[in-house]
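Intended use. Records like the one below are meant for learning the mapping from a protein sequence to its folded structure. Do not use them to infer anything beyond what is encoded.
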Amino acid sequence: MIGCHLGRFFQLTVAGGSYQEGLASVIQGVPAGMPITEQEIYGDTLLRKPGADELSSPRKEPDLPVVYCGLNSADTVENAGNKNLTNGTPLTILLPNLDRHFIHIKQYQDTNRTPRPGHASYASFQKYGPADDAIGAGIFSGRYTSTIVAAGCVAKKILLQLGVRVFSYVRELAGVKCPEVESGRAFEYCEAYKRMRRDFDPFYQQIYVGRRITMDMRFLEKMRIFAEIENEIDAIREKAPQFDPAAVQEQYRVHPILNCPDIEAAQAMVNACNRMSATGDSVGGTVEVVATGVPAGVGEPVFDKLDAELGRMLGIGAVKGVEVGAGFAVKDMTGYESNDRMHSENGTVVFDSNNAGGIAGGLSTGQDVVARLAVKPTPTIDKEQHTIDKYTLENKKLAAITRRDPTIVARIWPVAEAMTALLVLDNLVAHYGYQKLQGISWK
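Structure written out for the chain above:
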């Protein structure tokens, strides 16, 4: 299988499937000497996993990461202090599947002859034949996005050192739109939402804060504990901190379920989603992602424009469109309305608007880089649909009996955030390299 690789200077290769032993991220281009912990990575992967709320599927996969290689296992010389720091070799992060049981596998076996409309199951069978990994949809499952989020955590940490912040949130769900929110306030809201999720996640608190797994343990010791956790998932969840939605909203100033930086809009989104879910159907929406602090000039002309790079987020499952800045709305503007006019204030260039989404000619302008992703409704629904038997081509009826999400939008935003970080960092490395060459004094 090709197509599971991203990047030129900061590279990611992903592997695995929803019901295989697990998934993996192999990251190349990580600078040596960087501290990174499994707790940090899990702090991001927990954001896209199914939760206990009404917008999530009942799958209880905890998405616990294991850094397998790419870190020094001990100080390179006595008292060097570089144990568990990156060493410049490929950083490999494993994400074992812990919530896979025969009852769920049997559900897929019972329905795999009849492809789910709107899903990859028919096309992947045509490509890979009877050996296609159809249990849980394999690498075509949304579960594979955990690999992107894990790698994006590393990329975001590097970007932060370079003054670049990347964040994302739900902009629209079930036809309900979030009003415009200033980027600084949106960022603070997103950070508070993430903090809330970590504080109330039982695995984060019991496994990492409680130091049941630490970075000083060997891989095999961690696997022994993972085998225990596999049998304790329900017990761990039952020991979760008491979650009172009203109290959470009061303490963190965020919506207790949805990462949307307008609490009233978020609740309206949840209500609209629930109304549709009650009929057995699902809903879609949009996710907005913002990168602040990107210096002017990042990107390349023609085929590798920065906005074209952001278009690679169509590689995220369920994403059917990517727009930058005003996006498709520019078709209804005049040139005067669309243009981002600029002026100088105290030696600094200031733009009057950002319809270009911080990118002109494929190069960053120094403004916020803004993109939005259109996310389709979950294809697995609890309504009868007509389909075919992929072996005999007989016409069949199908109603989903497998685990499903009423919407995927609430789980896509951390993936968009992570992938944007990967794309921006890859282009930023190229930019800094080129700028270094520009500084050569020719003799």
